[in-house]
Amino acid sequence: MTKYLISFPAEAMVVPEEDFAPVVEASHAVIEEAKAAGVYVFGGGIDATVPPVLVAGDGTVAEGTYPDHKVPNGGYTVLELPSREAALEWAAKIAAACRCRQEVRQFHYDPAS
Questions:
Q1: For residue 31, how many other CB atoms are within 10 A of its CB?
Q2: What pLDDT score does 32 carry?
Q3: φ, ψ for residue 93 (rounded to 5)?
Q4: Does the predicted TM-score (pTM) go above 0.85?
Q5: DSSP secondary structure string for all residues of 7-69
Q6: pLDDT at 71 over 80
């Protein structure tokens, strides 16, 4: 099976304050459905209050990120699925719950993961 990244940037999720709790509930329901289906690998949102750092092979830590690289934010879900079509179906469920379009990316196969 192949792993897929289903994600959205924080700025794509424009939800009125009064609708935020139902969106959280709906998105958690989709994640529970993915867990019950046995396809859930990982999910979460980037904590934008914690700044990124770059760590070199010698352990040196530098503030920031790669030049010209947009800092990732928003929500991410990794699912292990039998096909791209299945990934698109799950992305539609997440999009409906989060009320914003989802980007779907396929990971390269890695037998060690």
A1: 17
A2: 98
A3: -65, -45
A4: yes
A5: EE-GGG----HHHHHHHHHHHHHHHHHHHHHT-EEEEEE--TTS--EEE-TT--EEES-STTP
A6: no
